[in-house]
Amino acid sequence: MPTSPTSSVAELSIATRAALKNLGVLAHKALAIDSAAVMRLRTREIESMHQDSSTAMSQVWVKTPFGPLATRTLALSAAPDDVIVTAADVKDIAVRAFAKQRSSDDVDADKDAITALPYRIPAQSSAGWPGFLPVLDGWEPVDYVPATAFRTLERQARNVATESSGPVGLPTSLLDQKVLSVTGQASESEVDVSMRDVFALCAMGFIPENPAEREPVRVSAKGRWHRLDGRFGSIFTMESLAVLPIVG
Fold first, then answer.
1. Directed axis angle between helix 17-33 and helix 195-203, to 10°?
2. CA 120 to CA 117: how far, in whole Å?
3. For residue 136, how many other CB atoms are within 10 A of its CB?
């Protein structure tokens, strides 16, 4: 479980302006579907061909009201290294930082200033994140599905949704509907994708609004969990109670 710091304050050290921007976008997307959204930041040493080995990376997690967990890896670190914060506080950091930069007389100098020092942010109790996170390794790729298929399903579902129950006004019967069955040619795994997956992937902005025809979403499985990897992030869904290695 995440640490509950005695000071109730977390410090976020953000390596690049791009990481700060993407963190703000992720918080904005989370708040758009849940005004009380929280984010869990776990700093880890993550190998990346695009990052210097000394650069700290963190998995930033969001619980979506649709059910799946959403995550994106960004060039930042948190102290403590496993902490819960509100999406509203994170968004406020990004908005204020870039607003200050735009108002600066010396814009070029201020580009580095917005990530030079840690940002202090209220830390939330571990009770704000009941449950566990799935591990990120050992997943079996099943197949690739065009991103256009997910956007088409999302638009069709919203057009036919006339009820107003469930998360963000969507009926439970619609959310629970299985809309894709993905079977791997090189494995025996089969993944049933529901509208919960579709809405989470699209609402978090992990695939473009109008993806190219050949843009893929990778579908993977591990135990009773499955994950969808889009261009900008991943969602994880546990189909039912399962025995799976987890990270507390």
1. 130
2. 9
3. 16
pLDDT at 97: 92
pLDDT given for residue 189 in this prediction: 86
Which residues fall within 8 angstroms of residue 204, CB to CB, at 6 or more apart? 26, 29, 30, 33, 62, 64, 70, 233, 235
- Are residues 74 and 115 in contact, defined by beta-carbon separation less than 8 angstroms? no
151 alpha carbon, distance to own chain's centre: 18
Predicted local distance difference test score (pLDDT) of residue 141:
94
Choosing among 3.10.150, 3.30.1150, 3.40.1350, 2.60.120, the CATH entry for 134-247 is: 3.10.150
Instruction: Report the alpha-carbon distance of residue 48 to residue 136 in Å, rounded.
Output: 14
> Coil, strand, or helix at residue 48?
coil
Architecture of domain 9-131: Roll (3.10)
Q: What does the alpha-carbon distance between residue 121 and residue 93 come to, in Å, rounded to a whole number?
A: 8
Dihedral pair phi/psi, residue 188, rounded to 5°: -95, 5
Query: CATH 3.10.150 residue ranges in the chain?
Result: 9-131, 134-247
- Verdict on whether the full-model pTM lies above 0.85: yes
Biggest CA–CA distance in the chain, Å, is 60
User: Which residues of the chain fall short of a pLDDT of 50?
Assistant: 6, 49, 164, 241-248
DSSP string, 115-182: TTSPEEEEPBPGGGS-S-EE-SSS-EEEEEEEHHHHHHHHHHHHHH-----SGGG--HHHHT-EEEEE
DSSP state of 70: E
